[in-house]
Amino acid sequence: MAEQFDLSEFEVSMIIREMTLIDVPAILEMQKHCFPGMVPWKEEQLRSHIDVFPEGQLVAELDGEVIGSCSSLIINFDEYDDRHSWDDVTDEGYITNHNPDGYNLYGIEVMVNPEYRGMKVGQRLYEARKELAREMNLKSIIIGGRIPNYHKHADEMSPREYVDAVSRHKIYDPVLTFQLMSGFQLMRINPNYLEDDLQSGTYATLMEWNNVDYRPVSKRHFKTSLPVRICVVQYQMRAISSFEELANQCEYFVDVASDAHSDFAVFPEIFTTQLMSFLNEPSPGLAVRKVTDFTEQYIEMFTDLAVRYNVNIIGGSHFVKEENDEIYNIAYLFRRDGSIEKQYKIHITPNERKWWGISAGDSVRVFDTDCGKIAIQICYDIEFPELARIATDMGANIIFTPFCTEDRQGYLRVRYCSQARAVENQIYTVISGTVGNLPQTENMDIQYAQSGIFAPSDFEFARDGIVGETNPNLEMVLIGDVDLEILRRQRQAGTVKQLRDRRHDVYRIEYMKD
């Protein structure tokens, strides 16, 4: 029997999906119609949402058209004042205070195109939020809800009386009524929540939906510290006769780090140029190319040491020749599980260009480890504050800087900039340098270093912001602990909050690789 109709002509497609940058113009336009008279999102705020927590930004799409959206972030709600405002809990709309280790999903906006109301778009978005909370094993969803019909009753009712009347179904409020029907319970009423929400009298109902599937886990609830132990190697350059001699020195230091139960062992920049001492190549450019011939042995050595001694190793940096015949200065992360990552040096010094013809990398990377997210910025790169800010925004808590400087002035540039990055970004920074000399090696004949571990400058950290430092120009190790839990707390409640207090409305850093 032939079908009379082509049913595909009548089908529509309604989906809930993650927000993308392509959706931003449609969302900005939709917001003007949903919240007339209120200050709409800025494009950079939505871009920040997608960059910081893409899973929490959702849109409803009907036949290719965005007809609704919602935005969320994760927090530990106990860390916020009971009378917090929308700006407090969203970092003024940029959600850079998003905490992946938090317990609560905080909803900061839901909107539906007025032309499509009555299609349960809002309900679909709320259900998608609940499913996200279940998938991420979050304890609850918290929202600061508007009460847009309150202005009609403000003369005869207090906010509490109005909310009570809506709860008893004596008055209809398009937001509060919907939230109550969606399973949210009233926690309290916050004044001065949204300054431009005149319909609600700037009040908001703090509502919570509890995830009954939540499985308590020992995240940080009972933890007072999350220490990471770092062993910094201040490596002495000396003449050697084979790669095996270099390997023996490296194993000695990794063994020391392992005996101290270190999580990281950190070697200096281009310490493998020590190999030049037996290569008998007077031309610096050709000597560097000969050093690249040892890349495979270098990688095999540190991979073996990381696994065998159970230590994550920042393998200093090494000159590597790649397929395009260009030579790069690359720092490798050798994880103790046997996996390997690499970070190219982005800014090449005049000396590196003049003597060795080194090419520049072009990407900032942040690496997951069993001790949280870290970044590596090689020597000169730490002198460019934009790179550290980008890495911090990508989640880095520690920035490791292998360096190699020949005089005190060069060393102090690295040190002062590393300490500044720790303060600016509320992170820990680590510098590891070479000492000693290679008298017969052009452009590597003298070294100057004083390695160290640095912290932000605030009460819970070391008094002078120095976790520890080596003696200058002596081969030795520095072992120190940095506490990631203290770092997290200070970012939320420190004397100053550089990450939260940035003026996104005045300036921003745009990472071009995105």
Automatic annotation (TrEMBL):
Family designation:
Belongs to the carbon-nitrogen hydrolase superfamily. NIT1/NIT2 family.
Q: Which GO terms describe its molecular function?
A: acyltransferase activity, transferring groups other than amino-acyl groups; hydrolase activity
Domain CN hydrolase, which positions? Answer: 228-484
Source organism per UniProt? Planococcus lenghuensis
Q: Which residues form the N-acetyltransferase domain?
A: 14-212
Quote the protein name from its UniProt record.
Carbon-nitrogen hydrolase
Signal sequence range: none
Keywords of the record, alphabetical order, are: Hydrolase
- Alphabetical list of PANTHER family matching this protein: HYDROLASE YHCX (PTHR23088:SF50), NITRILASE-RELATED (PTHR23088)
Do the record's keywords include Hydrolase?
yes
Annotated Pfam families: Acetyltransf_1, CN_hydrolase
Keyword Lipoprotein listed? The answer is no
